[in-house]
Design a protein that fits this description.
The structure holds three protein chains of three kinds.
Chain A (H helix, E strand, L loop, with lengths): L31 H6 L4 H8 L4 H11 L11 H6 L9 E6 L8 H8 L1 H15 L3 E6 L4 H16 L4 E4 L4 E9 L9 H8 L23 E5 H13 L1 H7 L7 E8 L5 E6 L2 E2 H7 L9 E5 L8 E2 H4 L3 E2 L1 H6 L8 E6 L4 H15 L5 H18 L7 H12 L7 H15 L1 H10 L6 H7 L13
Parallel strand pairs in A: 1-2, 1-5, 2-4, 6-12
Antiparallel strand pairs in A: 3-4, 6-7, 8-11, 9-10, 9-12
Chain B lengths: L4 H11 L11 H12 L4 H11 L3 H10 L11 E6 L2 H4 L3 H12 L5 E2 L5 E6 L11 E3 L3 E3 L4 H10 L2
Parallel strand pairs in B: 1-3
Antiparallel strand pairs in B: 1-4, 2-3, 4-5
Chain C lengths: L1 E5 L2 E5 L5 H7 L23 E4 L6 E2 L9 E4 L3 H16 L15 H9 L22 E3 L9 H9 L5 E4 L6 E4 L12 H5 L5 E3 L12 E6 L8 E7 L2 E7 L12 H5 L14 E4 L2 E4 L2 H19 L4 E5 L5 H14 L4 E2 L23 H6 L2 E5 L3 H4 L1 H12 L3 E6 L9 E6 L5 H16 L21 H15 L4 E5 L1 H5 L3 H15 L2 E4 L8 H4 L11 H6 L4 E5 L3 H4 L3 H10 L2 E6 L4 H6 L2 E4 L8 E4 L5 E4 L12 H11 L10 H9 L26 E4 L9 H4 L2 H4 L9 E3 L1 H7 L6 E6 L13 E8 L7 E3 L16 E6 L1
Parallel strand pairs in C: 1-5, 15-16, 15-22, 17-18, 17-20, 18-19, 20-21, 22-23, 23-24, 27-31, 28-30
Antiparallel strand pairs in C: 1-2, 3-4, 3-5, 6-9, 7-8, 10-11, 11-12, 13-14, 13-24, 25-26, 27-32, 29-30, 29-32
Classes of the chains: A alpha/beta, B alpha+beta, C alpha/beta.
The structure holds flavin mononucleotide (FMN), iron/sulfur cluster and FE2/S2 (inorganic) cluster.
C-alpha cells in the first residue's frame, strides 16, 4: 500500500511498499512495461511525433514553473534555455547523488520510477540538443545503480535511447555513473569532476556548466526529481503542473520526512501544502511527544523551532520568509527529547568529514566549528565560544568555492540562534539541558515497521 | 598484483560508456571492481588500475583516497557501515551501531579477530526514512535495522 | 579594451584579463597564494578576495574576469574582512615555527600575516600535524606547513607534464604527496620549491645553511644547455649558496631545470683546483702562477718550434665563455695552429666549410611556442633541453602538432602527434622519407639523392610502420602555416649530422619552414662566433684525437667524458707529451695525463658571455671571487698570450674581448644561418648491434657531474644496457641481468688499447629499436666503449 498520495501519475503512482520493503528484489512496477502502462513515454512519443520544437519544449517547462528539486530551486526551463544552441557537443547530467542528510526521495524515484528519469532526460536532451547523458548515482545505492542500468537496457531495446530514437532521427546515449561515497559530488561541478574521473572537488563558477561543463562542453545538470517531473509537464501541459502547486512554486513535490514521526517516508504533496498536513501524513509525532524543531530542507537548511514551522506552508517562499530554505524538501523532525547541542555536533561532524578540502575557509573552518561544538557538548565549552562559532560561520559563508561552506555554517548559526539557551546551559553546567535518559528514550530504535500500521 | 581478466572486462565495459579520449572517467568504476576482486585497494592494485587506464598513479590515488567507500586498508569479509547521521540517529542509528559494537566486540574502524567483520561509521546514505540503515560490503543496503534485524543479518553473513 | 576601476584608479585592460592581473597593471598588489600566472586557476586559497561593485559576496580576484565598467575595491571593509578571515583560517593549523623555517624571509604567508593576520589566536584546539614526505635529494618537506594551494601539484601536471605530486584525501586530511612515497624525478622538480608560497617544500641542499636575508643576490646566466637561462645566484662569504631563476619570458620564463638550479654544488666540490700545479718527475707540485704559466708557454713554444704548431691541438668546452673561446682561438692561431674546436661530441664534420653562417636555433626561443607544426629530429629532448621541451609541451596542449623522429622512445611528456623510432643508422633514411613524402604532397620533384629511399630503394626507414608514420608526419607538416624543424643533440652528434642538416634544409625550403639546431651547450653558437673552430687547414675535434697531437690545450674540457669517443680521447691525452689543462677542477683522469693544471674560474667567478642557441648575447659578472688562486680563464689566456709574445693580448676586461670580437655589444650575434651548400646526402646501411648513446642530463658537463645532490637523483643512475624484449631474448638475458658489452670495430689505432669492454646491467626498454642497445656516454663506466655511435658486441655476462 502506498505511503504517499499519488498526485503525479508519472511520479509516484506506481510506488508500492510492503512490510519487507527493503528487499528490492520484491519490487514490481518499475519496469518499462509498467511505466508505459502508467502513461510513461507518451510525452516523448508526442514530442517526437508532433515534431515539437526544442524551444517549445523549453517554453512548456518554463510555463510549469518547475524549480530545480536538488536544493537551489532554480527554474528548470530557464536553466535549459542557457544552453548554447550552436555547440556541437553537449551533455545532460542527472544528479542522483542524494547525500544531504534527511533527503531520500531520489532513491525511491530510482527504485520505483527509473523510466521517469530516463524519459525526462531524453526530453531534456532533445530540448537542449545534447547527444549524451549521464546519471550520477549516489555510492551507497549500488543496487539502484544496477537497476538503472537494467532500465537503460530496456529503454535501449525499445529504441527509446540510442541512435534514431523511435525513428525520429534523434540520437541520445545515456549511461549511469556510480558514485562511491562523497557528499560533495552532489554539488554539480564536483559531480562533473567526478564523472571525469577525478576527485569531486567543485569548480569555481563562472563559467557555469551551461557553458563549460562535462569535458569542458555545455552541460545541463538537474536533480533526479526534476527530470522525473518533466514527462508529466510535457504530457499534461505546463499549466496543469503549475496549477498542482501555487504561483512561483509549480507542481507537486516529494517530501522526505525523517526523524521523530510515526511514519517516516516520502510524501508527494502539492507545493504550498501546510506543514501540519505533512506532519499528519507522516503519522504525527512519535509517541505523542512534543515537536521541538524541524530542519525543513535537508541538513544544510537553517533549523526552525516548532512554532515557526507549524505556521509555514511547504513552498520556497513561505520557508524562506520563515528564515530557512526549502532546499531538497527533506524534513527532519525533532521532538523535545533532542539535545540541540548534540544534534548540531553530529551535523558539524558531517560537514567536516565531507568538506572536499580544496578551499581554505571550508577546509579549515568546518574542522574548527566541529571542534568547538564538540568541546561544548563534552562540557569543555567556554563563554566566548558562542561568539566564536558565529564569527567562524560568518567567515566561512560566501567565501568558499561552493555552497558547502554555507551549508556547514547555516546550521551552526541557526541552532545557536534559536536554541542559544541550550548552548549556554551546556557551557555553564557542563551538561545537557535535556536530561540524558530523556534523550535516550527519544532516539531509540524506531522503524516504520515498528509503527505497526503498514498504512 | 595484476587484475583478473574478468575484472578487466568489466572495466572495459565502463570505459565504453565515455568518449574515446576520456578513459579516465572509468577510474571510479575500475577501482570498485578492483576492490571487489582484491578485497581492498593496495598500492599495487591502484598502480595496476593506473596502468590499465593510462593514468598517472597519483591521479588514481587521489580518487581512491577521496571517496569514502574505497578501502585503502584490508577489511573483514563483511564490511558493515552504519549511518549515524542526525536523521538516522533520531531513529536509532547510533543504537544500532552500539548494538553491533557490543555483539561483535569491536569499535568503529576495527575488524573482528577472525577477520570476518569490519565496522564503519557511515555518513548519510540517502535512506533516512528507512533508519537505521547499514551497508553490507558497500553494495547491499539493509534498512530498518532494529536488533532483531541485525541478528538476522549477522546470521546470514557466513 | 575594457574600462576598469580599482581602488579609484581607472584603467583600460584587455578582454579576458583577470582582476588580479588588472590590479597588477594598475600597480596594486592583491594578496594571493594559489594563483600563479603560469598555472591553471584553482581559486582555492581565497586570499585574493576583493569587493566587486554590485556583487553581494567578495570575489576571488584570481578567478574573476574583468567586465566592462567593473569597479573593484581591494581595501574596502568587505574585502579586508574577507582577507583577514582567510588569513586566520590559514594560520590556525599552521605551525609557528618561522624561526627555524627555511622559507623565513621569503614566505608569502609570513609576509601577508603581518598585514592581514591578527595577533590574538582564537584557535585553541590542537593543531593538525602532517607527516613529512621523502621526495628525493632535491626537495625537502615540512608538510605541516602546507596550505594546500596545490601549486606544486598543478606544476607537476601542467608544466613538468607528469603528475608526480597530488593532493590525496579530503577535507583537512588533504595532503600533498607522491604516490607510494616515490621521489619526484622530473628534471624540472626544483621549481616546486619556488612555487611553494610557504616553507612546506624547500631546497634540500640549501636546507638550514643560511637565512635568505643574509644572502647577496647577483644576476648570472646558466652555463649548461644552449638556452642560457637567467639566474639569480645567492652568495654568502664568497660562496654560492643557492641558485634561483631570474624571470625572463624570452628565455626560461620563471623556471629552471634541476641541473641549472643545483649544479652550483659542483662549485664547492672537493675536486676544485685552487692552485696551479705542475707535474715533475711524475709528481704533482703546487707552484706559483708564473711558474705554471712559464711551463705551459714553454711547452707550447717548444713543440711549435721543434715539431710545428700543427702538433698542438686545443679542445675547448662548449660551456666555456665566449671570451675564453675567443682568446683561446686567438692564442692557437697566434702560435700557428688551426687545431681548435669546441664541438667535442660531434663526429661528422662534412659541413665544415660548406656552411653559410653560424648554425643556430633557426628562430627565437619564444617563436617555438608559436609554431603550429614541429618536427623534432634526433633529440633526447626532455633531458637535453628541459625548458624547450616544456615550451613544446605547452604548445602541444594548445594544438601544435609535435612530431618526433629519433632512435629512442623516451616519454617526452608531450602530447605527440606522431613519432617514428629507428636505429641510428636508419635515422637519415627515415628523415629522408619525410622529406620525400612532403615533396610528393607538394607535387615537387624529389632530390635524386633520395631515390634510394622508400619503396624499392635500398635505404630503409626501419620498418613499414615508420614509412607510414613518415607520411603522417609529412601530412602534418604540409598542413601547417608556421612550421619548425629542430635538430637535437643526437642529430648533431650523429655520424651523418651533415646529411641530417642538408635534409632539414631541403625540407624547410619545401615547407617554407624554419629549421635549426637545439644548442647542446651554453656556447654552442658562441663557439662559432668566437672562432673556436678550425679553418680549412686545421683539424677538428675528432681529427685531433684520431691523429693524436703532441700537445693539447684543454679549456674546461674533460675529453674522456666530453668527447664523441671517450676512449679515443683518453688515449690521445695519454700519449701526448704535454697536456695543459685550464680547468676549475682536477679530475683523476687529468691528474694522470696532464702535466700542468691551471686553476681557472667557473662561470660564477668570472665575467663573461654566453651566446645562447637563438644567438642572444648574454654577458654576466662574477658572483663571487675566484676560489683559492683560481683566475678567470680569459686572464690566464691573456697572460699566456703575452708570455708567448703574441699580438693583441692587451685586454683589460672580458668586455673588451667581447666587444672586440663582436664589434660592440649586440643583442643578437649576426651571421646566423643554418644552410649548407654541397653536402652529399648519404644514407648508410645498418650494421651490427648499434649503440644509442645519450648524454645523461646530470653527467653532461663538469659542474653537474660534481653536484652531490644531482648525483643522488634518479636522473643520475649509472648507465645500463637498455634494449627491447626481442634483444633481451636474443641474448638470453632478463632485465636486471648483466651483459658484457664490447667496443665495436671502428677504433682508431691509437685508441685500440683503451677500447675494451664494460659489464653493465641489462634493462628492458621497449622504446629501443630492434638490434640496438642504449648505453649512455659521458660516464666513467662506459668510456671504454668508445664512440657514441656505431656497432658494439653484446653478450650475456
Ligand atoms: C554541497 C552541495 C550538495 C548538493 N547535493 C545535491 C544532491 O545531492 N542532489 C542534487 O540534486 N543537488 C545537490 N546539490 C545542488 C546541485 O549543485 C545543483 O544545484 C542541482 O543538482 C541542480 O539541479 P536542479 O536545478 O534540478 O535542482 C548540492 C549542492 C551543494 C552545494
Ligand atoms: S566549500 Fe568546501 S566542499 Fe566546497 S569547494 Fe570549498 S572546500 Fe570544497
Ligand atoms: S589566489 Fe585567488 S583564491 Fe588563491
Amino acid at each position: 500500500m502506498a505511503l504517499l498520495q499519488s498526485i503525479n501519475p508519472l511520479l509516484s503512482a506506481g510506488w508500492q511498499r510492503d512490510a519487507h520493503e527493503w528487499r528490492l528484489e520484491n519490487d514490481t512496477g518499475w519496469h518499462l512495461k509498467d511505466y508505459e502502462a502508467r502513461g510513461g513515454y507518451q510525452s516523448l512519443r508526442k514530442i517526437l511525433a508532433a515534431k515539437m520544437s526544442p524551444d517549445d519544449v523549453i517554453a512548456e517547462v518554463k510555463k510549469s514553473v518547475l524549480r530545480g528539486r536538488g536544493g537551489a530551486g532554480f527554474p528548470t526551463g530557464l536553466k535549459w534555455s542557457f544552453m548554447p544552441k550552436a555547440a556541437p557537443e553537449k551533455y545532460i547530467v542527472c544528479n542522483t547523488d542524494e547525500g544531504e542528510p534527511g533527503t531520500f526521495k531520489d532513491r525511491d524515484i530510482q527504485r520505483f520510477d527509473p523510466h521517469a528519469v530516463i524519459e525526462g532526460m531524453i526530453i531534456a536532451a532533445y530540448a537542449v540538443g545534447a547527444g549524451r547523458g549521464y546519471n550520477y548515482i549516489h555510492g551507497e545505492i549500488y543496487e539502484l545503480y544496477q537497476r538503472f542500468e537494467q532500465a537503460l537496457d530496456e529503454a535501449r531495446a525499445a529504441g527509446l535511447i540510442g541512435q534514431n530514437i523511435l525513428g525520429s532521427g534523434l540520437n541520445f546515449e545515456l549511461f549511469a555513473h556510480q558514485g562511491w561515497g562523497a557528499y560533495i559530488c552532489g554539488e554539480e561541478t564536483g559531480l562533473l569532476e567526478s564523472i571525469e574521473g577525478k576527485k569531486g572537488q567543485p569548480r569555481y563558477k563562472p563559467p557555469f556548466p551551461a557553458n563549460v561543463g562535462l569535458y569542458g562542453k555545455p552541460t545541463t545538470i538537474n536533480n533526479t526529481e526534476t527530470f522525473a517531473s518533466i514527462p508529466y509537464i510535457l504530457r499534461d501541459g505546463g499549466d496543469a503542473f503549475l496549477n498542482l502547486g501555487k504561483p512561483n512554486n509549480g507542481g507537486t513535490k516529494l517530501f522526505s520526512v525523517s526523524g521523530h514521526v510515526n511514519r517516516p517516508g516520502n510524501f508527494e504533496v502539492p507545493m504550498g501544502t501546510p506543514f501540519p498536513k505533512l506532519l499528519e501524513m507522516a503519522g504525527g509525532m512519535r509517541g505523542g511527544r512534543k515537536l521541538k524543531a524541524v530542519i525543513p530542507g535537508g541538513s544544510s537548511a537553517p533549523v526552525l523551532p516548532a512554532d515557526i514551522i507549524m505556521d509555514c506552508t511547504l513552498d520556497y517562499d513561505s520557508i524562506a520568509k520563515a528564515g530557512s530554505m526549502f532546499g531538497s524538501g527533506a524534513v527532519i523532525v525533532m521532538d523535545e527529547t533532542v539535545c540541540m547541542v548534540q544534534a548540531l555536533e553530529r551535523l558539524s561532524w558531517f560537514y567536516y568529514e565531507e568538506s572536499c578540502g580544496q578551499c581554505t575557509p571550508c577546509r579549515e573552518g568546518t574542522g574548527w566549528l566541529y571542534k568547538v561544538i564538540h568541546r561544548i557538548e563534552h562540557g569543555l565549552g567556554r563563554p566566548e565560544d558562542l561568539d566564536l562559532l558565529s564569527d567562524v560561520s560568518t567567515n566561512i559563508m560566501g567565501r568558499t568555492i561552493c555552497a558547502l561552506g554555507d551549508a556547514a555554517a547555516l546550521p551552526v548559526l541557526s541552532f545557536t540562534k534559536h536554541f542559544r539557551s541550550e548552548f549556554e546551559y551546556h557551557i555553564e553546567h557542563k551538561k545537557c539541558l535535556v536530561p540524558r535518559d530523556v534523550q535516550k528514550a527519544g532516539s531509540t530504535f524506531h522503524t516504520r515497521l515498528m509503527a505497526g500500521t503498514a498504512c | 598484483m595484476m587484475l583478473s581478466e574478468a575484472t578487466l572486462k568489466k572495466i572495459d565495459r565502463e570505459v565504453a560508456k565515455y568518449p574515446a579520449d576520456q578513459k579516465q572517467s572509468a577510474v571510479m568504476a575500475a577501482l570498485i571492481f578492483a576492490q571487489d576482486e582484491k578485497g581492498w585497494l593496495a598500492h599495487e592494485t591502484i598502480a595496476s588500475v593506473a596502468q590499465y587506464l593510462d593514468m598517472p598513479e597519483m591521479a588514481v590515488f587521489e580518487v581512491a583516497s577521496f571517496y569514502n567507500m574505497y578501502d585503502l586498508h584490508p577489511v573483514g569479509k563483511y564490511k558493515l557501515t552504519v549511518c549515524t547521521n542526525l536523521p538516522c540517529a533520531l531513529s536509532g542509528g547510533v543504537h544500532a551501531a552500539d548494538y553491533l559494537k557490543k555483539k561483535l566486540g569491536i569499535d568503529f574502524n576495527e575488524t573482528t579477530p577472525d577477520g570476518k567483520f569490519t565496522l564503519k561509521e557511515g555518513e548519510c546514505m540517502g535512506a533516512c526514512g528507512d533508519a537505521p540503515v547499514m551497508l553490507v560490503n558497500n553494495k547491499h543496503m539493509r534498512c530498518f535495522m532494529a536488533p532483531e534485524e541485525i541478528d538476522l543479518l549477522l546470521e546470514e553473513c557466513k | 579594451m575594457l574600462d576598469f576601476e580599482i581602488d579609484g584608479k581607472a584603467l583600460q585592460v584587455q578582454d579576458g584579463t583577470l582582476v588580479i592581473e588588472a590590479a597588477h597593471q594598475a600597480g596594486i598588489y592583491i594578496p594571493h597564494f594559489c594563483y600563479h600566472k603560469k598555472l591553471s586557476i584553482a581559486a582555492n586559497c581565497r586570499m585574493c578576495l576583493v569587493q566587486v561593485e554590485k556583487a553581494p559576496k567578495p570575489m576571488p580576484a584570481c578567478a574573476t574576469v574583468v567586465t566592462n565598467g567593473m569597479k573593484v575595491f581591494t581595501h574596502s571593509d568587505l574585502a579586508v574582512k574577507a582577507q583577514k578571515s582567510v588569513m586566520e583560517f590559514l594560520l590556525i593549523n599552521h605551525p609557528l615555527d618561522c624561526p627555524i623555517c627555511d622559507q623565513g624571509g621569503e614566505c608569502q604567508l609570513q609576509d601577508l600575516a603581518v598585514g592581514y593576520g591578527s595577533s590574538a589566536a582564537r584557535f585553541q584546539e590542537e593543531k593538525r600535524v602532517v607527516a613529512d614526505k621523502n621526495l628525493g635529494a632535491l626537495i625537502s618537506t615540512d608538510m605541516t606547513r602546507c596550505i594546500n594551494c596545490t601549486r606544486c601539484v598543478r606544476f607537476t601536471q601542467e608544466i613538468a607534464g607528469l603528475m608526480e605530486l597530488g593532493q590525496a584525501f579530503r577535507g583537512d586530511r588533504a595532503e600533498v604527496m607522491s604516490f607510494m612515497e616515490k621521489t619526484v624525478d622530473s628534471e624540472l622538480s626544483g621549481n616546486v620549491i619556488d612555487l611553494c608560497p610557504v616553507g612546506a617544500l624547500t631546497s634540500k641542499p640549501f636546507r638550514y645553511s643560511a637565512r635568505t636575508w643574509e644572502l647577496a643576490r647577483r644576476k648570472s646566466v646558466s652555463p649548461h644547455d644552449g638556452l642560457g637561462s637567467n639566474l639569480i645566484v645567492q652568495t654568502q662569504h664568497n660562496r654560492v649558496m643557492r641558485v634561483l631563476p631570474l624571470e625572463n619570458e624570452q628565455i626560461n620564463e620563471c623556471w629552471l631545470s634541476d641541473k641549472e638550479r643545483f649544479s652550483y654544488q659542483g662549485l664547492n666540490s672537493a675536486e676544485r683546483l685552487t692552485k696551479p700545479m705542475v707535474k715533475q718527475g711524475g709528481q704533482w707540485q703546487e707552484v706559483d702562477w708564473n711558474v705554471a704559466l712559464d711551463y705551459a708557454a714553454h711547452a707550447l713554444r717548444d713543440v711549435a718550434k721543434n715539431h710545428g704548431a700543427a702538433n698542438i691541438g686545443a679542445l675547448l668546452s662548449p660551456h666555456a665563455t665566449f671570451e675564453e673561446m675567443a682568446l683561446a682561438a686567438q692564442l692557437m692561431r697566434g702560435i700557428g695552429s688551426e687545431n681548435i674546436d669546441f664541438r667535442l661530441r660531434q663526429s661528422d664534420f662534412r659541413a665544415d666549410g660548406k656552411r653559410q653562417g653560424t648554425p643556430w636555433l633557426g628562430m627565437k626561443v619564444t617563436e617555438i611556442s608559436a609554431l603550429d607544426r614541429v618536427l623534432v629530429v634526433g633529440s633526447f629532448l626532455r633531458k637535453d633541453h628541459p625548458l624547450i621541451a616544456q615550451r613544446l609541451r605547452q604548445a602541444a596542449k594548445k594544438g601544435t602538432q609535435v612530431s618526433v623522429i629519433h632512435s629512442a622512445d623516451d616519454d617526452l611528456l608531450i602530447k605527440l602527434f606522431a613519432q617514428a623510432i629507428a636505429a641510428p643508422s636508419q635515422l637519415p633514411a627515415l628523415f629522408a622519407e619525410v622529406l620525400k613524402a612532403v615533396a610528393e604532397l607538394k607535387g615537387v620533384a624529389t632530390d635524386p639523392a633520395l631515390a634510394k629511399v622508400g619503396a624499392g630503394g635500398t635505404a630503409s626507414a626501419g620498418s613499414a610502420a615508420n614509412t607510414e608514420t613518415a607520411m603522417k608526419i609529412a601530412a602534418s607538416l604540409v598542413s601547417g602555416s608556421n612550421v619548425g624543424i629542430l635538430l637535437g643533440n643526437f642529430a648533431q652528434q650523429h655520424p651523418q649530422a651533415a646529411t641530417l642538416n642538408a635534409l632539414a634544409q631541403q625540407l624547410a625550403v619545401l615547407l617554407g619552414a624554419k629549421f635549426g639546431f637545439l644548442g647542446e651547450a651554453a656556447n654552442s653558437v658562441g663557439g662559432f662566433v668566437a672562432g673556436a673552430v678550425p679553418s680549412a687547414t686545421g683539424m677538428n675535434a675528432a681529427a685531433m684525437l684520431a691523429a693524436p697531437r703532441k700537445v693539447y690545450l684543454l679549456l674546461g674540457a674533460e675529453p674522456e667524458l666530453d668527447c664523441a669517443d671517450g676512449a679515443c680521447a683518453l688515449a690521445a691525452m695519454q700519449q701526448a707529451s704535454s697536456v695543459i689543462v685550464l680547468s676549475p677542477f682536477k679530475s683523476p683522469a687529468a691528474l694522470e695525463y696532464a702535466d700542468v693544471l691551471l686553476p681557472v674560474s667557473p662561470f660564477s667567478e668570472t665575467s663573461g658571455t654566453f651566446v645562447n642557441t637563438e644567438g642572444r648575447v648574454q654577458s654576466f659578472y662574477a658572483v663571487t671571487k675566484p676560489r683559492g688562486e683560481a683566475r678567470p680563464a680569459w686572464k690566464v689566456l691573456r697572460v699566456l698570450g703575452n708570455l708567448l709574445e703574441l699580438d693583441g693580448f692587451n685586454y683589460d676586461s672580458s668586455e673588451q674581448v667581447r666587444d672586440a670580437v663582436l664589434g660592440g655589444r649586440p643583442e643578437f650575434v649576426s651571421g646566423l644561418d643554418n644552410s649548407v651548400a654541397g653536402v652529399a646526402i648519404e644514407l648508410p646501411a645498418a650494421a651490427g648491434v648499434e649503440r644509442i648513446a645519450d648524454v645523461p642530463i646530470h653527467f653532461a658537463d663538469v659542474l653537474a657531474r660534481r653536484s652531490p645532490a644531482l648525483q643522488a637523483t634518479a636522473n643520475a643512475v649509472a648507465p645500463t644496457a637498455r634494449m627491447n624484449a626481442a634483444m633481451l631474448t636474443k641474448l638470453g638475458v632478463t632485465s636486471g641481468g648483466s651483459v658484457k658489452v664490447g667496443a665495436g670495430g671502428t677504433a682508431s689505432a691509437g685508441s685500440a688499447a683503451l677500447m675494451g669492454t664494460a659489464t653493465l646491467f641489462a634493462e628492458l626498454d621497449s622504446g629501443i629499436p630492434d638490434g640496438c642497445v642504449r648505453i649512455a656516454a659521458a660516464h666513467v663506466n662506459t668510456i671504454a666503449l668508445g664512440p657514441m655511435f656505431g656497432s658494439l658486441t653484446v653478450e650475456r655476462g
